[in-house]
Design brief:
CATH superfamily of the largest domain: HUPs
Strand content: 15-25%
Number of helices: 14
Distance between the termini: 40 Å
Number of strands: 15
Structural class: alpha/beta
CATH class of the largest domain: Alpha Beta
Order of helices and strands: EHEEHEHEHEEEEEHEHEHHEHEHHHHEH
Largest sheet: 9 strands, mixed
CATH topology of the largest domain: Rossmann fold
């Protein structure tokens, strides 16, 4: 006997009122996309539920993919059994043994009889199924208050569904229900995690990366492409906009005092990101900034840098400790890529000291020496856009470094 279904549960979607069906439809579509590598699997949505029919596909493999789908609160492998009491009893026994392989522990039975025409009442079914399990096991006992395993049996019109295990999902909202956001994706640890957390709130992502050849090499760019590829596991395919930033960065380095160079550079990046977002119908910009982590992420710096845009800036990590960010990065599979030793444009020309409390008036005065409109338009017009998908393979030259 093997599990032949998986029952998917969702939490926040139940609070969406009149929009709930749209959220459920999007979750259904996202589950189908996540499971497309399993051709025999079918995803069924009906009566406020989503069932995954396995049709012989390994349950563990499907469960591993479901864990990465935002909008799923939890899910349970299930057995679909015909409405025959002996077969229901046997299936319940198998499910308990699967959940308690050492055949030690406690259980309870909870029957929900949706099919009122079934000839046995819920209390009688609880007793019959529990008695069958006790008769055929040695060290498993009943505990109706805090059992190790709860055997849930749902009697429906077409069949009975039996499940014992509940696996935690990623939570959040289905990707694609909250509009499009442009992620400023560097090669560091923080921005991919920020992208992951933004996806968890239902946004669709596009990413923008600032590339400064020959000061940043092709392996630095490839690292960013591979980070974007990891994010597609959680949010589907995305566009990655590669900005040629060398000319603007050299101009800033030549004409802006060292202490204000990073501030002006970040303002240029934000202007370019805003224009790119507008051209691609994104409603906000996201980045990996965390309050006080580096000089450009103090509150004073954010205040001065933000002056150049009215577009919302989403900072999922703004109050998050670095160690917590690293933990998430390791869990989602971006950490090993992020620590590869290839510099991005933020680390070249890095001055020995950066102003932690830059003033808007001084920054504006320094920027008067720069042809801002020209450099922003030139960079945006020369952007290279590539599509990243989960099928895109990790660059072989980088694999050797792991």
């Amino acid at each position: 006997m093997n599990y032949d279904h998986i029952l998917v549960r969702y939490a926040e979607l139940a609070l969406k009122g009149k929009n709930r069906k749209e959220f459920e439809r999007k979750l259904h579509d996202n589950i189908k996309r996540a499971l497309k590598e399993f051709p025999d699997v079918k995803v069924i949505r009906s009566f406020g539920r989503i069932f995954v029919e396995l049709h012989g596909t390994e349950e563990d493999a499907v469960s591993n993919r479901l864990r990465d789908v935002f909008g799923i609160y939890s899910f349970s492998p299930a057995l679909k059994i015909e409405l025959d009491q002996d077969k229901i009893n046997e299936a319940a026994l198998w499910a308990v043994r699967d959940a308690l392989p050492s055949e030690t522990g406690t259980f309870k039975v909870s029957v929900k009889r949706v099919n009122k025409n079934y000839p046995y009442r819920s209390q009688q079914l609880n007793y019959d199924i529990g008695s069958h399990v006790l008769r055929h096991t040695k060290d498993i006992t009943v505990d109706v208050h805090k059992p190790d395993v709860e055997v849930k049996v749902e009697i429906r019109e077409e069949a009975a569904y039996i499940l014992c295990k509940t696996l935690k999902g990623s939570g959040g909202l289905p990707v694609g229900t909250a509009g499009k956001v442009l992620l400023m994706l560097s090669g560091g640890i923080d921005s991919p995690v920020a992208g992951y957390l933004a996806l968890k709130r239902g946004v669709r992502l596009e990413a923008i990366h600032f590339h400064s050849p020959p000061f940043t090499n092709e392996r630095a760019r490839q690292k960013v492409e591979d980070l974007a590829r990891v994010l597609t596991r959680y949010g589907g395919s995305m566009k990655l906009h590669i900005v040629p930033f060398t000319d603007a960065q050299k101009e800033i380095h030549q004409k802006v005092p060292d202490k204000y160079e990073m501030t002006v550079m970040r303002r240029f990046m934000l202007r370019i990101a805003e224009e790119t977002a507008k051209r691609n119908q994104a409603l906000a910009i996201a980045n990996g900034e965390s309050l006080g982590q580096v000089a450009s992420q103090t509150l004073d710096s954010m205040y001065t840098i933000n002056e150049v845009t009215n577009m919302p800036i989403i900072r999922p990590l703004v109050t998050t400790d670095k160690l917590d960010v690293i933990e998430i990065a390791k869990r989602i599979g971006t950490y090993d890529l992020s620590i590869l030793p290839f510099e991005d444009c933020c680390t070249i020309f890095l001055p020995p000291e950066t102003k932690t409390k830059p003033k808007r008036d001084k920054t504006n005065a320094y920027e008067k020496e720069l042809d801002i409109e020209f450099f922003v338009k030139d960079a945006v017009d020369r952007i290279e856009t590539i599509k990243i998908s989960s099928e895109t393979k990790l660059d072989a030259s980088l694999e050797d470094l792991f």
